[in-house]
UniProtKB/TrEMBL annotation:
Residues covered by the RNA polymerase sigma factor 70 region 4 type domain: 136-184
Organism of provenance: Flavobacterium circumlabens
Name under which the protein is recorded: RNA polymerase sigma factor (Sigma-70 family)
SUPFAM superfamilies documented for this protein: Sigma2 domain of RNA polymerase sigma factors (SSF88946), Sigma3 and sigma4 domains of RNA polymerase sigma factors (SSF88659)
Similarity comment text for this entry: Belongs to the sigma-70 factor family. ECF subfamily.
Keywords assigned: Sigma factor, Transcription, Transcription regulation
Domain of life from the UniProt record: Bacteria
Length: 203
């Protein structure tokens, strides 16, 4: 599977700007399009699934409430993911689950990674063992490295967008990706492309 960079599709741009002009159908379409992705990402940051869903719904409520003031040039998916991350950080502060802080540093990525078995031949036991080892390596990475890889290869964000979400500069985001990949590449000796595995894996 070829990795793709998140860009606004024509549909996203149209839906977003129609929504900004109070088109309820466009708003509903955006909600249906991104709700599950946002909940999945939110669950990676908090073990409280019901509260995560509340956070995602609150993000959409705010989007609609403040639609007239929103910029027209945002990358919709990146904007929504970032909004969910910030809201969950505030949730952690309010509930005193983590240290009292409004910084998104107060939350840690917690989902487990798994390469889809459909990519591997049923009889290729050696590759299966290597992939299992790769999964363990990735899941043992520091949370920030793991989250950066998730945002890059699972959600398709650019390095700049990842930097904005994690509230670090571009070089720091690039370093997170580089260090994570370096750790994996030192150990991965399989015939399948490491990037292909990361892009097609599930969290």
């Amino acid at each position: 599977m070829k990795t793709t960079t998140v860009q606004n599709t024509f549909d996203d741009i149209t839906l977003w700007n129609n929504m900004r002009e109070s088109d309820e159908k466009s708003f509903s379409t955006l909600f249906e399009k991104y709700f599950s992705d946002l909940v999945s990402y939110g669950n990676s940051l908090s073990p409280y699934s019901e509260k995560v869903q509340d956070c995602v719904q609150e993000v959409f409520i705010d989007v609609w409430k403040y639609r007239k003031t929103l910029q027209s040039s945002v990358v919709v998916k990146a904007y929504l993911l970032s909004s969910v991350r910030k809201r969950i950080a505030r949730l952690h502060e309010r509930d005193h689950i983590f240290r009292k802080s409004t910084s998104t540093d107060s939350i840690a990525f917690r989902l487990e990674f798994s390469v889809e078995h459909e990519l591997i031949d049923d009889d290729d036991y050696a590759t299966k063992e290597k992939v299992a080892h790769l999964n363990n390596l990735l899941n043992d990475l520091p949370p920030r490295q793991k989250e950066a890889l998730y945002l890059k290869y699972h959600q398709g964000l650019t390095v700049e967008q990842i930097a904005d979400m994690l509230e670090v500069n571009y070089q720091s985001a690039s370093n997170l990706l580089y260090r994570g990949l370096l750790t994996l590449r030192k150990e991965w000796k399989g015939t399948l492309s490491l990037i292909t595995l990361l892009s097609s894996g599930t969290f």
